[in-house]
Amino acid sequence: MIRPFGLQEFLFLLESAGWTLLLTVIASMLGGVLALVLSIARVSDRWIFREAARVYIAAIQGIPVLMVLFLSYYGLAQAGFDLPPIIAASVALSIYASAYLGDIWRGAIQSVHKQQWEASASLALTRMQQYRYVILPQSVKIALPPTVGFLVQLVKNTSIVSIVSVIELTRAGQLVNNVTFEPFLVFMIVALLYLAICYPMSRVSRYLEGKSRVYRDS
Known about the structure:
Elements: H1 7-42, H2 47-61, H3 65-78, H4 85-111, H5 114-122, H6 127-157, H7 169-180, H8 183-217
């Protein structure tokens, strides 16, 4: 039954935007934990850790995120792990995020001046203490702008999970359009909701980039 676009449909889109944000938060948190491990492995003194992390990052970055989603949803199901769509989507986005954040954070760690490593080593700090007290606090300032910029891309890439029937913002737009047959209005609102999420994040990224440039120049 066709019905006009109204408040109920708008609220449904708004609620689905919350699922988009939730997917982004889950992927950034789980992916961030793995990314931290990868970034430290990439600058490790042991070549096997460096190479393992490099191969993982290169493999994930070389595969479309849609393929990662298919492997998580259909591939794991074939292996006997029948995951709910929202879980499979979270796994796929977390894997995707880990590779890109790992590369971003690796670059931030390597951009810390060599003298900082030498000074912390002269204080008899262990490797983990060097990271905790000296290296990571400095690299966070450098990594923050590109990290926020990547999160903008992550928000937009959550739209692919509509393929496995996760009702996030894009999928909600499809469902609303199916009952209203007002594609221009529905998808314009969907686009504006994405813009409302991503634009402030882009502005924050640019602001942090400016602050980071001042930090490096000083």
